[in-house]
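## tool: complex_structure
## caller: assistant
## args:
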Amino acid sequence: MTTVESLLVDRGAYVVYALLVGIGLFVLVDDDNLVKKIVGLNLFQTGVFLFFIAAAYRVDGRAPLLAGEGPYTNPLPHVLILTAIVVGVSVTAVALALVVRLYDEYGTLSESEIVEARS
Amino acid sequence: MSHLLPLVVALPVLGAAIPFVFGRRFPTSSRRVTALVLLGQVGLAGAIVATVATAGAQAYVVGGLPATVGIGLLADELSSLFVLFIAVAAATLYVTVRTDASGPTDALWLLFVAGVTGIAVTADVFNLYVFLEIAGLAAYALVATRRGPRAALAALHYLLVGTVGATFYLLGVGYLYVATGTLRMADLGPELANVGYGSPLVLTAFALIALGLSVKIALFPLHAWKPDAYAAAETDVAALLATLGSTVPGYALVRLTFDVFTVDFLDAVAIVQGALVTAGLVSVVVGGYLTIRQSNVRRLLSYSSVLQFGLVVVGIGLATPAAVTAALILVLANGVAKGGLFVAAGLYEREFGAYTVSEYAGLARERPVLAGAVTVGFTSLVGLPPTVGFAGKWYLAVAAMEVGDWVVAAVVLLSTLLSLAYAARIVERLYLSSAPSDGPVAADGGMDTHRSRRAVAVTVLAAVATIALGLGSTALAEWFAPVVEGWV
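## result:
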């Protein structure tokens, strides 16, 4: 296998992680639409979540049940990310609430139009 | 005693439920309860400092789990003092200048206190992320509580940038966990040494964590959210955030650099140390230049923080006992001075409709005591004796000369000149310019003298604290010494 192929086969999740983080940050910085900025933020965060989950994987790992047999996948990153997802949801909710307020005021979701209307 | 540690985080969290539930129907009682919770917080923090002073550092594991798997809390000389500073600042600002009369938003004030207190006492790197986000979310919402679209846009920007910063921090924690398999600060130090400081995982972890916290402390070029948010927020919120919002992440950066990565990591990887010092120096110079260019006073004060935190990061990068002490003192000095100055800026806005430096002309004649306190605050930012700002810069300059880094020594001096340039401009306006011919105007339909007097009192208190900490800076450095000497 070539390097690219083996990277995709063995480390596919990490490739997706890098893509999600990159695309998310790009959308967040580049897009003028405030809702899309929030979508970018969510993509970025999801990429980071994927990194944790992928790191918990092990070959032939099973669910970490006391009754079951090992080897187990590592449950700790899953638990951490459960917390991080909750945080992410709260952040998204606050962000969308602010966008609603801005839309009520200016009738647009475009950041540049809002900045223009203010000056 | 050690149960005080979880309590100091739990009290404001539980207290936040009261204004949230009853704030709308019983605003007066809810405000009283909030004030009581904040005063109780001061009591708890005082008790923790007293215990640390007599019995040394206190560790606690939530739920009585074994320390290796449980979530740890730690009160040593350093974290206990920050907990006390947070409690005193939040309580003082609440009882003196809190203006929002709609009770439910007081819950955000308490949640913010819980978040920053948690950052100060936690001994677990993932837990620190959670507290960073609790404090962050409360801060975004507090900024947004001001009516009008300007605050909403500033809060949204603050939220987007702040969340990216916190998520970078989380990613750094992920790399640390992959490298070592632990999240406990006390275990991470030795484990990272086992992994090897040259490991790409460790280097990436440090880069991501430093980047994430640099967003929170608003280091150049990651500072743009701060002037917008602090200028758009209600004045009391701006004062709270200016006092604690970046101060506590600044503490966290010091704690993580020396407790988790340790000075051996900085010694082993010269490029990290160089990058820290360089980032700090750039922030000092550019921050100073941007500060001088501001006309709006609140924006000016926010940019001045970019300069101040640049000095803090330089102190972290130099990594000698004097430099780390300098970083810690400068973090506190900036917090105290900015708190007082933002309260004063709020008062000038409300009473005289003065938002810009030129509108401050001749206002010392109207309110001489306030102008005096403002002058002391700026003196500390410039770094002149006998203020605490001077003490911080002194330690930093001494540290720079000890290691023979003349560039740093020169930039510390330059930072004083840059700060003098903007501070002198405001103080000169206040005292020497003649007032505009039509006299001061009351912007808010007449003065609320009771509130104004309290605002003046808190500005004077900040000025007194600035001088007291300056005169007592040796004691402060000695108080930090057990922790700092354990690190470097």
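## assistant note: The CA atoms of residues 52 and 77 of chain A lie 6 Å apart. The helical segments of chain A are 3-10, 12-30, 34-56, 75-106, 111-118. Handing back to user.
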